[in-house]
Amino acid sequence: MARKMTLEPAIRQAEDADKRVAEAENNLTAAKKKQAASWAKVDEIRAEQEQARFNSLARIAIEKFGENVTAEQFKEMLDTIMINDEISEYINSEKAKQNTK
C-alpha cells in the first residue's frame, strides 16, 4: 500500500509547483516583450522601405520636372510618372530588389 503523504512533503511539492508557475510566467512575459520588439522592428523596416520608395519617386519627379514644385504639382507629377511604362518597369524592378533582400 502507498504511504500517505505528510504535511512537509506536501508543502515542498506545492512550493516547487509555485516556483515552476512563476518561472513559466516570467518566460511568457519575456517572450511577449521579445515578440513586441520584433513586430516593432518589422514596422520600422516597412516604414524605411516605404520612405525609400517614396524618395526614389521624388528623385525621378525632380529629375523630370525640376525642384520648385508645390505639393499638388508633385502629386500630379507622381500620377504622370506612374502612367509612364518605363517608370513602371523601374518601380517593378525596385520592388523585386526589395523583395529579394
Description:
- The chain has 101 residues and is mostly helical.
- It has one domain.
- It contains 3 helices and no strands.
- The chain has helices spanning 7-65, 71-83, 85-100.
- α1 packs across α2.
- It is rod-shaped and about 90 Å long.
- The relative contact order is 0.06.
- The model has no long low-confidence stretch (mean pLDDT 84).
Annotate the secondary structure layout.
Layout: H1 7-65, H2 71-83, H3 85-100
Which terms would index this structure?
101 residues; mainly alpha; 3 helices; 0% strand; rod-shaped
Number of strands: 0
Largest sheet: none
Query: Can you count the helices?
Result: 3
**Averaged pLDDT:** 84
Low-confidence stretches: none
What is the structural class?
mainly alpha
Q: Helical proportion?
A: over 70%
Q: Could you give the distance between the termini? A: 67 Å
**How many discrete domains?**
1
Q: Proportion of β residues?
A: under 5%
Q: What is the succession of H and E elements? A: HHH
If you compute it from the alpha carbons, what radius of gyration comes out, rounded to the nearest whole angstrom? 30 Å
Q: Looking at the structure, what is the overall shape?
A: rod-shaped
